[in-house]
Amino acid sequence: GHSSRTPQVLIMGLDSSGKTTLLTQVLTGHTMDTSPTIGFNVGTLDLDKKNSLTLWDIGGQKTLRKNWKYYMDDVKALVFVVDSTDKERLPEAAEALKRVLSEEKVKGVPLMVLANKKDLPNSMTIREISNQLNLTVLEDRLWQIQACSGQRGLGLNQAFTSVNKMIK
Ligand code: GDP
Question: Which residues bind Mg(2+) (predicted)?
């Protein structure tokens, strides 16, 4: 089972949104314990001496999304990664997120949306993404959205520090 000491954080999002890149980047330079396995990657991020998060990156392909709920026991925060350059798939991302948030197991669990790939010139604004994902009408949980680049390592420390604060 999961370690009960470290908060479990689930990283979800469509395939190609950049979850694996982001997890690998965020664990670089920190104590890490990654085990790439079929279906998911997991690693522990040490924010400081007292605070760690166990991050689960689970597969985002359509056929795998039905498995997301099996990772939801004990989850303290949800991270939903969006490719902010992929306008075409934003409705699909919105639908996937809606389904996640409707799961009883994650009722009230805080949500961090990461608008990834902000290093690219054609990335959408935070406002546009928030609107399309219907974040602005969420009332039953804490949520935040932050732009980041998993590839360049931009915005990730802030994002996971915020995630940790949202859990408290
Ligand atoms: P996953 O399917 O969600 O795990 O996505 P991957 O981590 O495999 O990334 C999908 C593609 O997007 C790869 O080609 C990555 O190199 C690219 N990618 C991921 N993050 C970024 C980013 O922040 N900026 C740019 N420019 N490309 C990214």
Answer: 20, 37
